[in-house]
Amino acid sequence: MIATETKREKEKRTMHYQPLELDFNLYLVTDRAVLGDRDMLRAVEDALKGGVRAVQLREKTMGTRELLRLAYEMRELTLKHDARLFINDRVDIAVAVDADGVHLGQRSIPPYAVRRFAGRLIIGVSAHSLAEARKAEADGADFITLGPVFHTPSKAKYGEPLGLGTLKEVVEDVSVPVFAIGGIGPENLKEVLDAGAHGVALISGILGAKDIKGATLKFFRLLK
Description:
Blueprint: H1 7-14, E1 26-29, H2 32-35, H3 40-49, E2 54-57, H4 64-80, E3 84-88, H5 91-96, E4 101-104, H6 111-117, E5 122-127, H7 130-139, E6 143-146, H8 163-173, E7 178-181, H9 189-194, E8 199-202, H10 204-207, H11 212-223
Parallel strand pairs: 1-2, 1-8, 2-3, 3-4, 4-5, 5-6, 6-7, 7-8
Helix pairs in contact: 3-11
């Protein structure tokens, strides 16, 4: 149970922050396991051709040099399509390839520390509860991904789905933009947006599709 936050406590938590005006509402997150034997750069480019303007490179099992090489290639690709690039967890690689931002987990270096040596980076933080969302905001996150909202194998380790009620609660409580993640498809996208989410973060919803560009275009038609 989370202790009830007083109005003054919430004002203190949010008073330092002016919400960043994000220029994207669909946030593509990479995962080689979803792609199988398909080429990642080609798959991401298909999504970019479908309208994606923000990509998070999230490949936790890659070695540093392999990840750095891929990050350089991804930076070149996203610049070609006028899209933002975020690097999961690795602030050093984000700085090295001149990425637009970094995406942090609950065990990563906190946002306020990133600000001290890489202040230009846009900072996203993964949260799985209202308490974690509040902490991310207090620590200086520019936006939050919240999930899993619905059941999805890729987020099963985070426990039972949060549901739309928790999503709505978080959106109403924090000042930063909230992206819903986990089990989101065309069939439930409207419910997520009606709950107040700024947008959606997608993995298999796009990269798991046979026609990646077509799947991306379908999501954008529904996001309008």
